[in-house]
Amino acid sequence: MSIKKEITIYDIAKALNYSPSTISRALNNNRSISKKTVKIIQDAAKEMGYRPNSLAASLRNNRSNTIGIMISRINRPFISSLISGVEERARKAGYNVIISQSNDKYENEINNAKALYDSRISGLVVSLAMETTDYGHFQQFVDQGIPIVFVDRVPENFTSYRVIIDNYSSGYMATKHLIEQGCKRIAHFAGAQHRNVYEERKKGYIEALTEYGLPIEEDLIVEFETLSFEEGKKATKSLLKMKNPPDGIFSSNDTAAVSAIMYAKKHGVRIPQDLAIIGFNDDPIASIVDPGLSTVTHPATKMGNISASRVLEHSTETYDESISEVTILNTKLVIRESSQRIPCLETKKVGQPKA
Amino acid sequence: MSIKKEITIYDIAKALNYSPSTISRALNNNRSISKKTVKIIQDAAKEMGYRPNSLAASLRNNRSNTIGIMISRINRPFISSLISGVEERARKAGYNVIISQSNDKYENEINNAKALYDSRISGLVVSLAMETTDYGHFQQFVDQGIPIVFVDRVPENFTSYRVIIDNYSSGYMATKHLIEQGCKRIAHFAGAQHRNVYEERKKGYIEALTEYGLPIEEDLIVEFETLSFEEGKKATKSLLKMKNPPDGIFSSNDTAAVSAIMYAKKHGVRIPQDLAIIGFNDDPIASIVDPGLSTVTHPATKMGNISASRVLEHSTETYDESISEVTILNTKLVIRESSQRIPCLETKKVGQPKA
DNA sequence: ATAAATAACGAAATCGATTGCATAAAGATA
DNA sequence: TATCTTTATGCAATCGATTTCGTTATTTAT
Fold first, then answer.
1. Is A64 (CB) below 7 Å from strand D?
2. Do A208 and A176 touch, CB atoms closer than 8 A?
3. What is the pLDDT of residue B352?
4. Of A171, A290, B138, B178, which has the fewest CB atoms closer than 10 Å, so is most exposed?
5. d(CA A85, CA A152)
6. Protein A239 CA to nucleic acid C12 C1', in Å?
């Protein structure tokens, strides 16, 4: 266990007979050091096997070249791709990424926020826990000038960066698609209505029905807690038991939609003839289930990339904290067999270009 | 942008007329400070809103209460659950988790190792990139007494902690199951043979065939590069084109297995009657595909938990660096319809108890 | 009662990099 | 030549917590 000594700028300073300040500046390509000296120092540093101690730099600068991520659960396709996108971009810029999962609990989110804050992260990427309705725990970051990027599940009243999709239009398009396929009674699997994404998808659903003169039936709108497989099954069961069951379902996620497909199939309901189904997210299971689940793509990795970029490009000088910068990404309908009653391939774009 | 000043131990020291040393000790419950004083100081700290600056402590201690993770890709079910398990355990202990993905590239793995090393992580959890065959980039951690836990994809010759499943037995059991279901010509989707997991699964496969007196046919063993959906399709296609096609497939992962199911189904091959299939991992898609894919469970989250524990419990004093501590977790066969020719539910355990 | 041990706390160095200010040398301008 | 810049570098403080050595009281032992 012979722990090797690390080389510091002091070692280099001694070896080259320069002061530590000069070494530091040279290594950071500070222009006040002549190119010749810079070269000498950088070469020596490389040769001596110097490795910057980022902890020391972080302490001095009071920021740690680290991006913190707060999400509900890592092991969900959308979330893991989102994280992947953040990591990808951050690492290219030499930043580390710290993750924390809330398991959709408000209390965990608060604790994680504190932990990340104490870690002196230089930026935060957040997708809110299902439970969260109060955003006070994010104020500490704002007070310290640490940029926050909310992704996908964003708060209603909190000035910050946002990276989202157009949930309203996406919900509208998904529902419209079902209508165009001949559905007259379309059910909706809605998520918690205090979470923007679910609220807006539902609004889009209602708008589409309204526009096409179809009635809004509260019986056909099921509000889920977690949009889980189990919940999907239960909801499908009770929908199919109705005297006048729906002929279409727009689900706010793929898990519940797939669950519906499987339950319906098992009970002799033909998909899409008797029941057309469309989900949301384009998780891997969407293309595996039989019949394939039509859905709305959710550009997770790209959202992660952009979120990280927002943090990296954030500049305290140019930042106006009274303005929310919102980035809206396009989604696409992916039409598979679960909703395709009329034989005609189509792929539609939803949403607006980047704001 | 009025950035609030943080409270330090010096502020507390001044307020209470103690020295910073005493404050530090009291906050760390050092026994050389009287209980009375400790209480006074801790109360004051709380009241003043003191928050320890972990960067300062990290610099001083030269370790950062952070666990680094190196994996191939975050957005894979097994990996994201693994990470989830590490995060879960680490956060409970007040540790942060930094992630880095190699995308299965050796070069990225080297760079990530350097980045994590420079971040002064206090422990490392690694699942090797597909490409990696040289392990020199991990030596730096050993030299600094930083514990490394290899999970799942582990190196052959590198003394360290390991958390794995019994791939050999699992492969054996999976194959045996197919044999018991009446398969006579079982194909194998093998992964890169320099990666322990794939090599051992194949060995288990061969052992089972041998034990039951079935011939080993090289034509039926397909070595994959990435075990992707595409590769699975291609392999299935050529297998089914053989004059004497296989009646069973043991795939080293679920993705390729599901791909095989879908391809075979599409081409009129009945599953499991004509072709019985079993996969590996128990990814979500395994229970979604129709017919449901039999597979081998891979206790990902638990492996993550244990890996984190190994790091947290690691003690430089008691550690003997000439010994590899290996933890082997149980796997289970999950029998679904894709392999069930004989009507009889079964679930078998594979592997040994924790070492 | 006196030496020895213990308890409770303080002074100051340390971890390694950064940076405002000072300084010296070289070049430019009048 | 004298003055003013500009260039290149060093000095020393700083970030905040930890820790090694001490230094006083206060107990305990003899």
1. no
2. yes
3. 47
4. A290
5. 14
6. 75
